[in-house]
TrEMBL record:
<keyword id="KW-0378">Hydrolase</keyword>
<keyword id="KW-0479">Metal-binding</keyword>
<keyword id="KW-0031">Aminopeptidase</keyword>
<feature type="domain" description="Peptidase M24">
    <location>
        <begin position="14"/>
        <end position="242"/>
    </location>
</feature>
<dbReference type="GO" id="GO:0005829">
    <property type="term" value="C:cytosol"/>
</dbReference>
<dbReference type="InterPro" id="IPR002467">
    <property type="entry name" value="Pept_M24A_MAP1"/>
</dbReference>
<dbReference type="InterPro" id="IPR036005">
    <property type="entry name" value="Creatinase/aminopeptidase-like"/>
</dbReference>
<dbReference type="GO" id="GO:0046872">
    <property type="term" value="F:metal ion binding"/>
</dbReference>
<protein>
    <submittedName>
        <fullName>Unannotated protein</fullName>
    </submittedName>
</protein>
<dbReference type="InterPro" id="IPR000994">
    <property type="entry name" value="Pept_M24"/>
</dbReference>
<dbReference type="GO" id="GO:0006508">
    <property type="term" value="P:proteolysis"/>
</dbReference>
<dbReference type="Pfam" id="PF00557">
    <property type="entry name" value="Peptidase_M24"/>
</dbReference>
<dbReference type="InterPro" id="IPR001714">
    <property type="entry name" value="Pept_M24_MAP"/>
</dbReference>
<keyword id="KW-0645">Protease</keyword>
<dbReference type="GO" id="GO:0070006">
    <property type="term" value="F:metalloaminopeptidase activity"/>
</dbReference>
Length: 251
């Protein structure tokens, strides 16, 4: 069974630093995301954090991507491009962004209501966060990548939500996307084995309507739910340790 790379102490030092930058980007965006704000303004604020911390973006220019954040609203699941449309009260906003410090990457996402939250959105976001926690709880030495997907999918399915088949989490280190893929559904005991020092980015993606189908818009990036229902996307970069999982993308 294939084993994942083991990150050494100096590598983890840089990844923790990158993760803190990502967490600060999230914090700043959460404070600014209110009715009337545009996602272009949120992107500008994220750029300011990167510049202040001496970090660079792993999103900007990635396969031609034009921004440092992905800003997905309502039925947009992932990869939404920031624009000049003001956010409205009651919108559901997902932000995905990353940072590079000394050549090492961090990557994380969150979903939040803009202004007034409704009960359905609150339940959707809570389920996404619970799915992420379940996936992280499966990350211990000797476990398998399939255990993570099985844990995530159990929460999503029990809550009655959909999740796309073709988008998933990933390994992370010197590149933002490394092997292995970390699907949001899986079979326990299958896939590469985790060891202390493994680092993965877990990212549950939930579709409120209960269907799994998605579509990519003509911009070549934005992925939306095929049924028009709202979506949530959450993510952390997580280290496997002998003491339990360590979230690297938090302050």
């Amino acid at each position: 069974m294939r084993q994942l790379p083991v990150r050494r102490d100096h590598e983890l030092h840089a990844m923790r630093a990158a993760g803190r930058v990502v967490a600060e980007m999230h914090q700043v965006i959460r404070e600014l995301a209110r009715p009337g704000t545009t996602t272009l303004e949120l992107d500008a604020a994220a750029r300011e954090v990167l510049a202040r911390r001496g970090a660079t973006s792993n999103f900007l220019g990635y396969h031609g991507y034009p921004a440092v954040i992905c800003a997905s609203v309502n039925d947009e699941l992932i990869h939404g491009i920031p624009n000049d449309r003001p956010l409205a009260d009651g919108d559901l906003l997902s932000i995905d962004c990353g940072a590079i410090v000394d050549g090492w990457h961090g990557d994380a996402a969150f979903t939040m209501p803009v202004g007034t939250a409704n009960a359905d959105d609150t339940r959707l976001v809570h389920a996404a966060e619970q799915a992420l926690m379940a996936g992280m709880s499966a990350m211990h030495p000797g476990a398998h990548v399939g255990d993570i997907g099985a844990a995530i999918h159990a929460v999503v399915a029990a809550a009655g939500y959909g999740s796309p088949h073709d988008y998933c989490g990933h390994g992370i280190g010197r590149a933002m996307h490394e092997e292995p893929d970390v699907p949001n559904r899986g079979r326990r005991g299958k896939g590469p084995r985790l060891v202390a020092g493994s680092v993965l980015a877990l990212e549950p993606m939930l579709i409120a309507g209960g269907h799994d189908d998605v579509e990519e818009l003509d911009d070549g990036w934005t992925v939306v739910s095929a049924d028009g229902s709202r979506c949530a996307h959450v993510e952390h970069t997580v280290l496997v340790t002998n003491r339990g999982p360590e979230i690297l993308t938090r302050l």
